[in-house]
Amino acid sequence: MRGFKTSIFLKTISLYILLLAFLFPFLVVILNTFKSTQQFVENPLSWPTRFNFSNYAKAFKDMDFITGFLNSSMITVISVIIIVFFSSMTGYLFVRFKWKANSILFFSMLASMTLPFQALMIPLVVIYGNLGLLNSIATLLFMYLGFGIPFAVFTFHGFIKGVPLELEESASIDGSSRARTFFQIVVPLLKPVMVTLIVLDTLWIWNDYLLPSLLLQSPSMRTLPLSNYGFFSTYSVDYSPLMAGLIMTIIPVLILYLFLQKHIIKGITEGALK
Amino acid sequence: MTNKKFLQNTGTFLLFGGPSIFAFFAVVLIPFLFGLYLTLTNWDVRIGDHTFLGFANYAEVFRDKVFLTQLWFTLKYVFFTVVLANVAAFFLAFALTSGFKGQQFLRTGFFTPNLIGGLVLGYLWQLLFSQVLPYLGKEYGWTLFETSWLTDTDKGFWALVIVSAWQFIGYLMIIYIAGFMSVRVDVLEAASIDGANGLTKILKIILPLSAPAIVICIFISISRSFLTYDLNLALTKGGPFNSTELSSYHVVQKAFLSNEYGVGQSEAVVLFAVVAIIALTQAYFLKKLEVEE
């Protein structure tokens, strides 16, 4: 029995060491954000002599962190809200109304999930460019809605199928309209699947680089990944502020992760195994 | 009466489906069909006008040595990334489902790289490969690290594989864990009583019963690694001398630098076909290996 306990102890310790090695790149970078670029180049593994936040201040100002942060937050929040709102209604429509058009539409959405963004990118630029709609945050939000819809509708569809019909029937006998039944009876039941979608879509949109880089040309519309790209191109050898900028971009999602880790893990499991 | 019913149904359809179906058509379906049309023309933004070409663009794609070299480079990259990430994730998931204190914390920790987008992740590792590892190489005389991996054609390839696998491991691990949890505990206990050791349990019970998770993980890692763009941009920018350009990176460069939309789009469609064929074929064959519980 004692041998068993020792082996579990050894295994736990080695897993913690493995985790430390796994996260080594992060740790090195975080440590070096407190040193000057010269100290970093001389010895990237030395402990900082004192915790100096001037790199953060510099990155904050020079990459215009506030603009990037506000744009990223606004774009992420609005996109996620409209995706979840409209896809829950459409998922409900596809489950409860067995019309031929619905099943065709549902099937095309399902099939479209295999389409890589690269195959849609050129046509999008040509079409929206000709309409004069590029370089606009509203267009970006609309595109996130379009790209987010298939997966979200699919997820709601799977969940709503399992909701018993009796509740809705009795509401309808009591004279409730379709829309009212949906919002007052069905939506509250959808909470778990909504949290899952909110988390997955937030990670996707917050970190997205390619789509905003095609759409948002002017600096005032920049999202954080775009700010990072610009900052890296101009600062190429002043490593310490660069690293501080990267860490600042990560911090908001890390905070979100600390609060929602259970849902994130659950969301990925459910998103993948359905 | 039927007229009223029809109007009511149309109203319901528009209310519940209108906005999302409109967005889906405008952003996905119509651009996809228009994209297929583009591949049959010589569309060039500078000309503005275009003529119908038939399949000439596709012929050009398959004659283009650079595109084919990069496709081969991409296939090798996908293969090594998928194998490395899945093997590591599988064993990590196995170690983290045995039931001990702190395993939840470890799972959370190994997942962290997935919170970070490809661009930032690429920059983090770029600093590691170009500054930290060469420092270690010089300080301790490790020749492997003495020069930056990112300026070397072969090592640049492995840098891409390592960073991608590093990012995927945590995500795949979560799916494998979910797969293992569905392997019924009593089956494993019965095996233990019958004297099966760890390796036998993995090979004879866990592996076959978690086949659905394996199919999904390989499918996800294949399709995600084929689309690697941000990471490629941030880590190597395709360099040195375009030797580390992955196909999906090349497609973006081609489209927006040379403005040949017809050829660029044809390359994107060919890439899509390759991804779909490989991902679906592996899923088909692995599905056959699944056992009935």
From TrEMBL, chain A:
One of its GO terms (biological process) is transmembrane transport. It is found in: Cell membrane. The chain crosses the membrane at residues 12-34, 73-95, 104-129, 141-160, 181-206, 239-260. Its main location: membrane. Coiled coil: none annotated. It is a multi-pass membrane protein. Keywords: Cell membrane, Membrane, Transmembrane, Transmembrane helix, Transport. Belongs to the binding-protein-dependent transport system permease family. This is Carbohydrate ABC transporter permease.
From TrEMBL, chain B:
It is found in: Cell membrane. One of its GO terms (biological process) is transmembrane transport. InterPro entries: ABC_transporter_permease, MetI-like, MetI-like_sf. One of its GO terms (cellular component) is plasma membrane. Its main location: membrane. Residues 71-282 form the ABC transmembrane type-1 domain. The chain crosses the membrane at residues 12-34, 77-96, 116-137, 157-181, 202-222, 268-286. Keywords: Cell membrane, Membrane, Transmembrane, Transmembrane helix, Transport. The keyword Amino-acid biosynthesis does not apply. Pfam families: BPD_transp_1 (PF00528). It is a multi-pass membrane protein. The keyword Transferase does not apply. Belongs to the binding-protein-dependent transport system permease family. This is Sugar ABC transporter permease.
